[in-house]
C-alpha cells in the first residue's frame, strides 16, 4: 500500500490552472516529504527477506528511457530495507544500484538516491547484519561518481585510466560543466562512507584503499588555499566526511577487538591508517588556510576526527607547521589559522 501511494502521488495528473498549481505547490511538496518520511520509518518494520519483492516492484521503472526512471531510483532508496531485513539480498541490491550509476547522464538526484542505498547496505554489511559485500570491484564506479559529485575535473594518467577501464568515461572533463549539477552535500557524505568502510584490511592495498588514495591525489590541486570556486564547499565537506568515517571505523574496530568479536571485514592495519593520513592530512592543512569560510570550518572539524585516528602522527604534523608559521617570515600569515 505504501508503494502504491507513492506511485499515485508521483504519477497523479496535474492539469489544473496555473493559479491552482501555484497555491497547491507548497502543500504538494509537504505531502511528498511526509510520505517519504513515512516510508523511511516504515521500512524498519518490513518483514525479513522483503528486499527481492521491493526490487521486483521497482525494477520495471529503472529503465533510463522511461519517464518513471527518476521515481524508480527514488522508490528504491526509500523502500529497500537495511539491517537484518536485507539479509540474503544485499548483493542483488548492490548490483541494481551500481547499474543505475553507470549512466553517463545520471542526475544529481539519481546519484543521491543510489549512494544513499549503497551507504546503508555498506554499513549493514560492515557491522555484520547482512552478508559480506565485496566493494573492491565497485571502487572504479565510486571513484568516478565521487569526482562527479564533487564537481571537479581530474586529469588521469595512463595507469589510472587502465585501472578504471570503462568507468574512466564517467570522470568529468571540465569542472565548470558541473557547477550547478550536484548541490547536495549528502551525496559526498555517503560517498566518503562507502570509500572508507569498503576497505578490507586483508585485501592488498592495490584495491579499495588505493582507489581512495588516488581520489585524494586527484583533488589535491583543488584544495589550494587560494581557490574559492563553487566546488570548495563540497570538497571541504568530503574531507570532513572521510575523516569522520575513518574515526568511526577505527572506533568500531577497537570496540570489537576489546569485546573479542570478529568483524566481517578485516581491520585496517597500521600501515593502511598511515597511508590514509599521509594523503588526507596535507589536504586538510591546505583547507585550514582556505579563504573560504565554510572550507575552513569543515577543515577544523576534520582535524578533530583525524586526531582520534592517530594523535601522535597528526599532532606532530600540525605542530611542525604551526612552529613554521610562528618562526618563518614567509609563513606568518598562516599563524592565526594554525593556532
- Give the distance, in angstroms, between the N- and C-terminal Cα atoms: 57 Å
Helix content: 55-70%
Q: What is the N-to-C order of secondary-structure elements (H for helix, E for strand)?
A: HHHHHHHHHHHHHHH
Q: Would you tell me the overall average pLDDT?
A: 77
Describe the structure in your own words.
The chain is globular, with a radius of gyration of 22 Å. It has 15 helices and no strands. It has 2 domains: 133 residues, no CATH class; 162 residues, no CATH class. Helix content is 63%, strand content 0%. The protein has 339 residues and is mainly alpha-helical. Helix 3 runs antiparallel to helix 4, helix 6 runs parallel beside helix 9 and helix 11 runs antiparallel to helix 12.
Spell out the blueprint of helices and strands:
Layout: H1 2-10, H2 18-42, H3 51-58, H4 69-79, H5 90-101, H6 108-126, H7 139-150, H8 158-164, H9 185-197, H10 208-218, H11 232-259, H12 270-288, H13 293-309, H14 311-327, H15 335-338
Helix pairs in contact: 1-2, 3-4, 4-6, 5-6, 6-9, 7-9, 7-10, 9-11, 10-12, 11-12, 11-13, 12-13, 12-14, 13-14
GO molecular function, one term: proteasome binding
Domain Proteasome activator Blm10 middle HEAT repeats region: 213-338
GO cellular component, one term: cytosol
Summarize, please.
This protein has 339 residues and is mainly α. It is 63% helix and 0% strand.
Question: Which terms would index this structure?
Answer:
339 residues; mainly alpha; 15 helices; PSME4
Amino acid at each position: 500500500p505504501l508503494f502504491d501511494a507513492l506511485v499515485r502521488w508521483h504519477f497523479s495528473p496535474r492539469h489544473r490552472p496555473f493559479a491552482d498549481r501555484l497555491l497547491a505547490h507548497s502543500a504538494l511538496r509537504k505531502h511528498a516529504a511526509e510520505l517519504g518520511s513515512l516510508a523511511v520509518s516504515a521500512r524498519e518494520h518490513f518483514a525479513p527477506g522483503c528486499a527481492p519483492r521491493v526490487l521486483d516492484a521497482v525494477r520495471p521503472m529503472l529503465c533510463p528511457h522511461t519517464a518513471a526512471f527518476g521515481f524508480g531510483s527514488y522508490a528504491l532508496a526509500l523502500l529497500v530495507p537495511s539491517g537484518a531485513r536485507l539479509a540474503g539480498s544485499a548483493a542483488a541490491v548492490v548490483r541494481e544500484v551500481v547499474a543505475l550509476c553507470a549512466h553517463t547522464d545520471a542526475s544529481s538526484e539519481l546519484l543521491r538516491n543510489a549512494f544513499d542505498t549503497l551507504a546503508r547496505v555498506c554499513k549493514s554489511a560492515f557491522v555484520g547484519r547482512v552478508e559480506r559485500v565485496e566493494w573492491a570491484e565497485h571502487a572504479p564506479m565510486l571513484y568516478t561518481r565521487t569526482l562527479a559529485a564533487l564537481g571537479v575535473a581530474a586529469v588521469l594518467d595512463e595507469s589510472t585510466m587502465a585501472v578504471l577501464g570503462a568507468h574512466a568515461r564517467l570522470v568529468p572533463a571540465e569542472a565548470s560543466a558541473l557547477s550547478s549539477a550536484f548541490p547536495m552535500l549528502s551525496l559526498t557524505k555517503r560517498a566518503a562512507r562507502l570509500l572508507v568502510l569498503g576497505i578490507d584490511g586483508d585485501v592488498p592495498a592495490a584495491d579499495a584503499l588505493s582507489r581512495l588514495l588516488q581520489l585524494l591525489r586527484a583533488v589535491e590541486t583543488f584544495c589550494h588555499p587560494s581557490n574559492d570556486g563553487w566546488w570548495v564547499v563540497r570538497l571541504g565537506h568530503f574531507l570532513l566526511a572521510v575523516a569522520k568515517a575513518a574515526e568511526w571505523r577505527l572506533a568500531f574496530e577497537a570496540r570489537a577487538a576489546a569485546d573479542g568479536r570478529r568483524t566481517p571485514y578485516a581491520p585496517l592495519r597500521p600501515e593502511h591508517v598511515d597511508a590514509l593520513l599521509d594523503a588526507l592530512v596535507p589536504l586538510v592543512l591546505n583547507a585550514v588556510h582556505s579563504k573560504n569560510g565554510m572550507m575552513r570550518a569543515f577543515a577544523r572539524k576534520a582535524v578533530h576526527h583525524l586526531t582520534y585516528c592517530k594523535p601522535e602522527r597528526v599532532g606532530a604534523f600540525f605542530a611542525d607547521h604551526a612552529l613554521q608559521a610562528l618562526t618563518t617570515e614567509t609563513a606568518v600569515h598562516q599563524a592565526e589559522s594554525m593556532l
